[in-house]
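hiii, so i know i said id send this last week but things got crazy w the move. better late than never?? heres the sequnce for the chain we talked about at the cafe, plus the structure i predicted for it. fair warning i was half asleep when i ran it
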Amino acid sequence: MAHRTQLYLDDSQYQFVKDLARAERKSIAQLFREWIEERRHLRAQKRYEKDPFWQMRGIGASGRSDIAKHFDDYLYGDKR
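okay and structure toks below
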């Protein structure tokens, strides 16, 4: 569901957004929607960065690409 909203900009803000929209071949509304999504993404990313579990990501990274196939060998040693 889309919601219509109204935004007041001063002359310099409007001219900036209008010029940018023309240069990027987008509507002014599309620019604002994209900016909002970028901001939402940044806020979500900041929340994750503060999460202790998120900070542990990569802790077990080995650089090996065959872990799933040979996990027994890596965990318990090669039994051959």
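btw The CA atoms of residues 6 and 19 lie 19 Å apart. thought thatd interest u
miss u guys!!
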